[in-house]
Amino acid sequence: CVAHGVQGAHNMADDADKDKAEEKTTSREADVKKEMELTKMWAKIEAEDGNLKKKKKQIRELVKVGIPPDLRGRIWKKMIGNHLNITVDIYQFYVSRAEAIRDNRRKQTLGCESSVNLIGTDLHRTFPYLSVFQSEGAYNDTLREVLEVWVCYRPDIGYVQGMSFVAGLLLLYMEPEDAFTCLANLLCQPFFLSFYRMDEKEVLSILGALDKLLDHFLPNLNKHFKQVGITLEVFAVDWFLTIFSRSFPLAFTSQVWDNFFHLKCDVRYLFKVAIGIISSFEQTLLRSDFEEILHLLGRVPHSLDATRVLQICEGLILTQERFRSVL
């Protein structure tokens, strides 16, 4: 009887495992089907509106769902644009210049061009859980090249830690020349230059704006931050400087970028995302001390509910007038 009971328990366990496996298979099939449908919808839009400037409402709804990974590079490139008019020839010119500096064939350098020699120490730290950026990885040399080209393109800025995550994420979806074009057109925006130039006055103004917005949207939590000694720069500088790419799951960051680029890189959206992330952990943070808050917001767990955060962002009303008033 005992043997039959044990066998029966094993059979029930086997049936449960089969059910779980079938559920996972069904879920994967549903995800594949959904992605195929989204790809078809995007293909139709691109065929009818190549520059993505006419079907705004339809595109907005698709972006909320998330751009299919296979299309992200092409769509992001169109959304970011190229107001700097960077060409392949310009890219290749700076590739050659960077190689000469790195190989000590160019003795005279401009500004921070010598910072090309710092890039190598950061490559393996870029998304360390992805082998492609490690020393023998497929994208290691490519990431180095894109960052070196940036240094020579903007010697007044040079290489700053954090850039490799932005460049790295772009490289996961597009070719090096396109990744550099997008990187330059992003980082040359005043908001990001404030961080990469380490402009203390501008950075403090940005953090002050976030503080005022938290006072408005999450007053109890912001009060708790101040009571336990948390200042916003301990996590928010990294969030903004890397456009949420270093401390967050890649899938979440990619969706944030989908929306940010679609909104023509309106920095108000980045503030919404920051508030959305903090809001999603509000109850946990209210019960946390300094070290616990620092740990949670410094390296956001993969349990982050991306859908909820993005829904919170959609519900936040931040007009240009209000935004200007807090800056």
The coarse overall form would be globular
CATH topology of the largest domain: Cyclin A, domain 1
What name goes with the CATH superfamily of the largest domain?
Answer: Ypt/Rab-GAP domain of gyp1p, domain 3
In N-to-C order, the SSE pattern is: HHHHHHHHHHHHHHHHHH
Low-confidence stretches: none
CATH class of the largest domain: Mainly Alpha
Q: Which CATH architecture of the largest domain is right?
A: Orthogonal Bundle
The share of residues in helices is 55-70%
Largest sheet: none
Approximate strand percentage: under 5%
Mean pLDDT: 90
Q: Ends: how far apart?
A: 76 Å
The domain tally reads 3
Protein model, in words:
With 327 residues, this protein is an all-alpha fold. Helix content is 70%, strand content 0%. The chain has helices at 2-48, 56-65, 69-80, 88-102, 116-123, 140-153, 163-171, 176-187, 190-196, 200-217, 219-228, 233-241, 250-262, 268-280, 282-286, 290-298, 306-315, 320-326. Helix 4 (88-102) packs across helix 6 (140-153), helix 6 crosses helix 8 and helix 14 (268-280) packs across helix 17. It is globular and about 60 Å long. The model has no long low-confidence stretch (mean pLDDT 90).
Structural descriptors:
Rab_GAP_TBC_domain, 327 residues, Cyclin A, domain 1, 70% helix, GTPase activator activity, globular, Rab-GAP_TBC_sf, Helicase, Ruva Protein, domain 3, 0% strand, Rab-GAP TBC domain-containing protein
